Amino acid sequence: MTYRYEKILTNPVFVSTIRKIEEMEKDRFYCRHGMEHLISVARISYIISLEEQAGLSKDIIYAAALLHDIGRATEYETGSPHNSSGAETAKDIMYECGYSEEEITVVTDSIRSHGHENRKTEGTSLEKILCRADKLSRTCFKCRAYESCNWTDERKNNTLVY
Fold first, then answer.
1. What are phi and psi of 122, to 5 degrees?
2. Are the CB atoms for 83 and 112 separated by under 8 Å?
3. pLDDT at 145 over 90
4. What string of DSSP letters covers 80-126?
5. What is the model's pTM?
6. How far apart are CA 18 and CA 153, in angstroms?
């Protein structure tokens, strides 16, 4: 079976934007937002969805995870929040990869809300699973930047699971 998220991985806008983000962050001391992070978030999101029987398709979960930080390049260039600019870029990419309007709305809504500080992570909606996986993908408890990181202790991931 071929998943549409495989098309995302070869989409020219996705590829060039991820390369740009990785280049912009190559000397970054804190968390990075390249392919390694995106794939970790995708896999963790899928595991959470299966464990909690969320009923979300792998294709939608992986699309959301791969695209959730696509707005980082715009944020670094203009200062606009990555979640809102990323949702717009994700919409175009998903359309080109054959996703329906309804699927695009579900994914872009989860991208828009994943960066909010006051987000709640309990539940099985795509948005909540994406938020949890994004946090779990970070190994704050062993990070070299732990002491100087501006994340609050509550936001940092200090365990393997929660």
1. -80, 140
2. yes
3. no
4. --HHHHHHHHHHHHHHHTT--HHHHHHHHHHHHHTT-TT----SSSH
5. 0.87
6. 29
Under a CB-based contact definition with an 8 Å cutoff, are residues 8 and 14 in contact? Answer: yes
The two three-digit tokens of residue 117, written as one number: 């500080």
CA distance 41 to 57: 15
Q: Which of 114, 123, 15 is nearest to 73 (CA)?
A: 15
- Please write down the HEC assignment for all residues of 1-50: CCCHHHHHHHCHHHHHHHHHHHHHCCCCCCCCCCHHHHHHHHHHHHHHHH
d(CA 140, CA 142): 5
